[in-house]
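Hello everyone,

My group is preparing for a crystallization screen and wants a predicted model to guide construct design. The compound we'll soak is manganese (II) ion. Before spending weeks at the bench, it would help to have a computed complex in hand. I've included the protein sequence and the ligand's SMILES below. Output in structure-token form would be ideal because that's what our pipeline reads.
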Amino acid sequence: MPKLPFTKSEYEQRQESLLNSISKNDIVIITTNDVMIRSNDVNYSFRANSYMLYLCGWEEENSILLMENNGSNWIKTLYVNPTNTEKEIWEGRRQGVEGARKFWPVDNAKSIHSLFQDLVVVKSKNKKIHINQKPKYFVDLIVENLESRDSFDNFLSNVNDVNILIDKLRVIKSNAEIKHMRASCAIASSAIIQAMKKSYSGMGEWELQAIIEQFYKMNKSQTSYIPIIGGGDNSTILHYKKNNSVIEEGSLVLVDAGCEINGYASDITRTWPINGTFTKEQKEIYKIVLKAQKAAIESCQVGFDWNKMHESSVLHISEGLLELGIIDTDLGDIIGENFDGRYRDFFMHGTGHLLGLDVHDVGGGRKGDDNPGPSLQPGMIVTVEPGLYFSKWRSDVSIPDKYAGIGIRIEDDILITENGPEIITKSCPKEIEDIEVLIRNK
Ligand SMILES: [Mn+2]
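Reply:
Good plan to model first. Here are the tokens for the complex, ready for your pipeline.
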């Protein structure tokens, strides 16, 4: 019997919460993701769409969840790949219609090949369709059945975006979701500790990546994004992922590497000296980022505006830049009127994001988003990750020589609770002394 990450009743609660805000005359369609080709017959590993995972935990490709009201009840039907011996010999066993109906939190299951005919009926009743996305496999399923020159857009014209309604639910994590998130954070924290312990001057960035990914695999987990392992000047590239350079003696290495448990992501960053001892300059910058990060975490209080954490970290980053003379002007100029001041030369990203089934989880809230975030509520999980980056190669800003090649980011995952912020990645050290002891006493 397949084991789903949540109880049937938890999935049903999520479905009901969504359907409460949908008219009984409408239908909801949740599609999963496309299978993406890597090279000829080789595909990228498939990951189901997060909305599909959230509403029913279905992980197979080429599937649709359709929810329609019959006048008194919402009927939830999963359209899936039917069993097919020939295909299963090559691609692996399928749950098929029977498995989906028996074990998944839906009322009914059908073959994906009958979806089109059912949609024709839906269309004839002129129902509005709320959908999460229109991936290629879904468009193809419809277009290949169209007889005339009718287009997909003509066929499915009465369509509405359902995501924002589900996002409101996904933003607040249930106790069971928090349990998966804690597990994900614990594995990622331990993996980074392993990487710190095995650090030595002259090792390859790829070796640290291998240590971390091995730890994930050994714990039946996987990366939630391509790890960033940047030694020396590579630590200043925000989304560096080549991970193919040697980490020279005296360099810092920035490691941003989260994992995934039952679809739930962790996202953690630590920066450390590869030889186990911070230089004076590395310490100076590290202390600024750490102070900013701690202040931002303190701003993760119930009811606080989302932007407060960014403002807290910007204040400390800016004060630090001023104190070290890296930006030589007044504090107001560095912070800027709308927090768009000169600090952005060296701290170019936001302070955090929501975390959940997606690493950059739904729910918005980041400055500049169309959907201004809600104030922080219990059950939200956010990252807090200020950084400072001084690239050697940049000519658009002036960087003191002694700081060139230093990139530092410190990132923890924070659960918002009535009792204040809870750091769920706290088992991973971030104090200078603790990191040094860990690397030197390996
Ligand atoms: Mn992050």
